[in-house]
Specification:
CATH topology of the largest domain: D-Maltodextrin-Binding Protein, domain 2
Radius of gyration: 19 Å
Order of helices and strands: EHEHEHEEHEHEHEHEEHHEH
Largest sheet: 6 strands, mixed
Shape: globular
CATH superfamily of the largest domain: Bordetella uptake gene, domain 1
Number of helices: 10
Number of domains: 2
């Protein structure tokens, strides 16, 4: 790596705003492993999980460490929806985005014995009996999962406000809620129920990807195959506290870029059903501004935000 004027001088802490195994925990563990293996960071690194509010508790912690480049967090779209919905006063511009890593699409899962045989049956249920379908969702109201579910419900002719949703800090917990029979449907990131998909204890009626996914999802149709234009899913990135200087930002941008160019990271993308959407610098800021506007418009259209 090219020399910069700043290097870490003490232990690095990477925050994940979900519990172990959750949607922010998985990239944190993968990234830390590669940074260590490649020798891209000269000091020890620790993962700290601070679940709650879809990552909001972790970002609030980060905001209390302005100027400290030894403390970072995994970023996700919930940082935008939390602010839009008034869940948090913290804006993404109050922190220092360092990179976007990938986007992961959503799986709509049910138990094997569910009467929801396929996506068409699910559409009928959402349209005819919206309130009668208990749903498990991670990790926050107003996030990409919730928006995708709401768009599909609206397409089906159902009432978005009537959705019966239980929200969990981790998609693994949402999966367990489906397995227990307390929810008939789970709307979670595709990587989350892979063990259950492989074991046959859940099945997927549709994915929100632009094309079919591989592996355990090879036989799962996209929503587009059912004439529903739903291509959606949360992205994950890395964000730092406010007031980082140019040298600190430069170090992390270079280290993160190097980590994501390794064969190990490419293997992780494939294994986790993640799609590479890496961005940094001005391209990242433009992406976040676009996402913020798009999310606000989607939330408003779905009645989750008041009309401006």
């Amino acid at each position: 790596m090219a020399q910069t004027t700043w290097h870490p001088e003490r232990d690095i802490v990477l925050l994940a705003g979900t519990p172990a195994g959750g949607g922010q925990d998985r990239p944190a563990r993968a990234l830390l492993g590669i940074l260590r293996e490649q020798g891209l960071v000269p000091t020890p690194m620790t993962l700290v999980n601070i679940p709650g509010r879809g990552g909001g508790n972790a970002w609030d912690d980060l905001a209390r460490h302005g100027g400290d480049a030894h403390r970072l967090a995994i970023n996700s779209p919930t940082i935008l929806s939390n602010h839009a919905l008034g869940v948090s006063a913290l804006e993404w511009t109050a922190l220092t985005p360092l990179c976007n890593l990938y986007t992961e699409y959503l799986a709509f899962i049910v138990r094997p014995d569910s009467s929801i045989r396929d996506a068409d049956v699910l559409l009928r249920r959402l349209g005819d009996d919206t309130a009668g379908l208990p749903i498990a969702l991670a990790t926050a109201i107003g996030n990409a999962n919730h928006i995708a579910l709401s768009e599909i419900t609206r397409h089906a002719g159902g009432a978005v406000a009537a959705l019966d949703i239980a929200v969990f800090d981790s998609a693994r917990d949402a999966t367990a809620h489906v397995l227990s029979g307390k929810a008939e449907l789970g709307v979670i990131t595709a990587a989350s129920p892979v063990p259950e998909m492989a074991a046959g204890t859940v099945r997927c009626v549709a994915v929100s990807a632009p094309a079919r996914l591989d592996g355990v999802y090879a036989s799962s149709p996209t929503w587009r195959e059912h004439a529903v234009d739903c291509v959606a899913g949360p992205w994950r990135g890395v964000i730092g506290p406010a007031a980082l200087d140019t040298a600190q930002i430069g170090f992390w941008e270079e280290a993160l870029r190097a980590a994501t160019r390794t064969p190990a990271w490419r293997e992780e993308l494939a294994r986790q059903y993640w799609s590479d959407t890496y961005a940094s610098g001005e391209a990242l800021h433009a992406f976040l501004r676009h996402e913020e506007a798009t999310m606000a418009a989607a939330l408003r259209a779905l009645g989750l935000l008041p009309s401006s």
